[in-house]
Every structure is written in C-alpha cells, then in structure tokens.
Specification:
By secondary structure, the protein is mainly α. The chain contains 3 helices and no strands.
Length: 142
Amino acid sequence: MKSSLLKKLLLTVLAGCTFWMLTQGAFAAIQIPDTLRPTNLPDWDTAAATDTDHPETAATQTIILFVGNMVSQVLLFMATIAIVFVILSGANYIFAFGKDERIERGKRGLFWSLAGLLIVLLSYSIVQGVISLILQVDSSVG
C-alpha cells in the first residue's frame, strides 16, 4: 500500500513537471518590443547590415537559446525530482522511530539527494552563465 501511494505521488509530480515544461514554450510567439531588443543582434531593417558586420546571425543565437533553454528545463526538472527525494528521505528519517537501519537509510538518502540538488543548481548556474557569455546579452533588460 505504501509503495503504490509513493508511485502515485511520483507519477503526479512527474506529470505536473512535464506539463509545466511543455507549456513554457507557449509564449515564444509573443513579439518583443524594439526597446527590449538586445543591441548585439543584427539590424535587419537597414540595408547596410551584412553578415560580415554580425557573424552571429539571429538563427545561430536562436539555436543557442533553444538548446540552452532545453538544458535549463531538464535541469529544473531534475531539481524538482531532487527536492522530492529530499522530502521523502527526510520523512524516512523522521519516521524511523529509533530503528538504526532506517535511520541510516534516511541519513544516506538525505545526504545524496542534497548532493544531487547542489550539483543540479551548480549546473544550472553554469549553463546560464555560458549562455550569457556566448550571446553577450544584457541581462538587466528582461
């Protein structure tokens, strides 16, 4: 019974996170006003702008942003899973009721889930830093 409840809980969290990840790209068709446009993008309105002026085209930047956003979404999903495991390991530790084996299992699970969460958070910050370095986009705009 406890196992089936845990499976239902994890499947619900997984379905919710999947829905959240899929709906994040729904607002991609909204056009950004020219005042919020980064200055390093090529100016397609002027005839003087050529590919040699801006070697990184908008298509290249779009691909970089797409891949970076996909990696970021996967890392956010992994962080959600790590947080769920922190909660479950903490519950196992709390409800061990003095049984040494269950206490050790709870401590070990809590340690490794926190370590995983730390790795995911560091990876997320590295990915965001690399994206901003590659694109040199002013982060104070958005």
